UniProtKB/TrEMBL annotation:
EC number: 3.4.21.102
Protein name: Carboxy-terminal processing protease CtpB
Bilayer-spanning residue ranges: 7-25
Pfam (any one): PDZ_2
UniProtKB keywords: Hydrolase, Membrane, Protease, Serine protease, Transmembrane, Transmembrane helix
NCBIfam families: prc
GO biological process: proteolysis; signal transduction
Family named by the database record: Belongs to the peptidase S41A family.
Length: 532
């Protein structure tokens, strides 16, 4: 080998590798000799523009942000549910869908610039380690966790970590005025999707699911088993405000109510390929009566369950017309930690109806449909719901059901308050965000011993929010907001909400929901139906 060849050989090899990478990146099953080496494609045009901006544009530009905006603009022209999730948000979204995260398992707040435990999370390592509500966590290993400039994101990054890694926490306990260290191992902490389950009557149970995550089926089965032990022969499944989630989990829950061989749903993709999903013989609640609560914010997986039961003449759907989302998304990684959730098929209920409402007028009109329902009167009267005869379907027992925009309930329950009242309440709630939690925490923190030996049942029966306590909260809120806040018009609702937060901080979210459900119109309608 001569010297020239020796020097050129690495260059030739490098060029061959580069060419291989280029060609390999362009190869696909539909590529032809004419297009394989062509640079005049739409994809190449977009790549070339980004390169021009990156290398030639007169000012420095964050190319990543341009790509993000481009991706979002592309998706906006597809459908309302194909969405881009940036890398910094993807982990949070994934944890929410997985149903757990790795950490120490506390809900905290910064009280007087100090990390303070509001509540330990059930199933997390802090409970087993002996950390209590009211504890101040001063340090995690060598990192200080107090001070005016501490952000929640900084604190979370120090407490979260890899599963089974240890963290040494320095604790100050106000009740006993002592300071000590606790060493614990980070572990998976459940993010519960079954947020409440309890008995409504002697034989009627209640389960509320707020989303369908990977753990939702197991949580549901556990809650159902507990209710059956308490005598539940019938069930109320609350799917109000549930935006949906994982399809496989949804099918498993629907299977609990339907007999072997019953069709749950089917999906159809762009090629016309159909996948059908049937119930098995493993259902644990196939004979009991089932009531499903839905409203205008029940979407996707919630509608799959409601539609599967309704089309199989099983149970009673109670509430108002659901959201109307009949598209199925699949998360697809983009290589940099970001993800696109792309619509890959439509789903159909057992009778063959699509409940996806139109999005031809664009995303804004699509998501503003809620306000159109207000104006049309359909949230007050079932007769105001617009249906098309062309989208009429019939169940095996002859019941008429409709496609084209949500599940219409069997029993309608109107919205109790007017749009104006709801708007005022939403405005009031926005002014109170976080303040009820802080107010209740301050009250409990002054003397936790009063409540330490009180059971949940005792607290529910004996503790009431007095007029004086409501006035005290109003003064507290007005001071924090820097202006007088008038909540007297909503005194009853505010008292219930304050009591619910007391319950949540002392006993957990199950009791919180139970308190908020008192005098709930839909639940009262179910109890009435069940009694007849």
């Amino acid at each position: 080998m001569n010297k020239t060849t020796q020097y050129l050989l690495p260059v030739i090899i490098a060029a061959a590798v580069a060419a291989g990478v280029f060609i390999g990146g362009k190869l696909n099953f539909s590529a032809t000799p004419e297009t394989l080496f062509s640079s005049n494609t739409s994809k190449d045009k977009l790549n070339r523009l980004i390169d021009y901006i990156d290398y030639e544009y007169v000012d420095d530009v964050d190319v990543d942000s341009i790509v993000d905006v481009t991706v979002m603009n592309i998706l906006e022209n597809l459908d309302p549910h194909s969405v881009y999730i940036p890398s910094e948000e993807e982990k949070r979204v994934s944890e929410n869908m997985q149903g757990d995260f790795v950490g120490v398992g506390i809900r905290f707040d910064m009280i007087n610039d100090t990390l303070t435990v509001v509540r330990t999370l059930e199933g997390g390592p802090s409970v087993a380690a002996g950390i209590k509500a009211g504890d101040r966590i001063l340090m995690a290993d060598t990192d200080t966790l107090y001070g005016k400039n501490m952000r929640n994101t900084d604190i979370i990054s120090k407490l979260k970590g890899t599963e089974n890694t240890s963290v040494n926490l320095k604790i100050y306990r106000k009740q006993t005025n002592e300071e000590f260290n606790i060493n614990l191992k980070r572990a998976k902490v459940p993010i519960k999707s079954v947020v409440a389950y309890y008995m409504l009557t002697d034989d009627l149970g209640y389960i509320k699911i707020n989303r369908f995550a990977e753990t939702s089926y197991d949580e549901f089965v556990e809650a159902l088993a507990i209710l059956k032990q308490k005598g539940a022969k019938n069930l109320t499944l609350d799917l109000r405000n549930n935006p949906g989630g994982i399809l496989d989990v949804t099918r498993s829950i629907a299977d609990e109510f339907l007999k072997d061989g019953k069709l749950i749903l089917f999906t159809k993709n762009k090629k016309g390929e159909i996948d059908k999903y049937f119930a098995t013989d493993e259902g644990e609640f196939e004979d009991g009566e089932i009531y499903v609560l839905i409203n205008e914010k029940s979407a996707s997986a919630s509608e799959i369950i409601a539609g599967a039961l309704q089309d199989n003449d099983k149970g009673v759907i109670v509430g108002r017309r659901s959201f109307g989302k009949g598209l199925v998304q699949r998360p697809m990684p983009l290589g940099d930690g970001s993800v696109v959730r792309l619509t890959i098929s439509r789903y159909y209920t057992p009778t063959g109806r699509s409940i996806q409402r139109s999005y031809k007028k664009g995303n804004k009109d699509y998501f503003d449909d809620y306000y159109d329902r207000f104006k049309s009167g359909e949230l007050k009267s079932m007769d105001s719901i617009k249906v098309a005869d062309s989208l009429k379907f019939k169940t095996p027992k002859g019941k008429i059901v409709y496609g084209g925009g949500g599940i219409i309930p069997d029993v309608f329950v109107p919205l109790a308050r007017s749009p104006e009242e709801l708007s005022l309440e939403r405005g009031l709630r926005s002014k109170m965000v976080g303040f009820i939690d802080d107010f209740v925490f301050d009250k409990l923190d002054k003397d936790r011993a009063i409540y330490s030996n009180m059971s949940f049942e005792e607290f529910m029966n004996k503790f009431n929010v007095s007029d004086d306590l409501l006035i005290e909260y109003t003064d507290y809120l007005s001071e924090k907001r820097g202006q007088r806040i008038y909540i007297e018009k909503y005194a009853a609702q505010m008292k219930r909400h304050i009591k619910a937060v007391f319950i949540e901080q002392l006993f957990g979210v199950n009791g919180y929901q139970q308190e908020l459900n008192k005098n709930d119109e839909m639940i009262e309608k179910v109890i009435e139906l069940h009694g007849n």
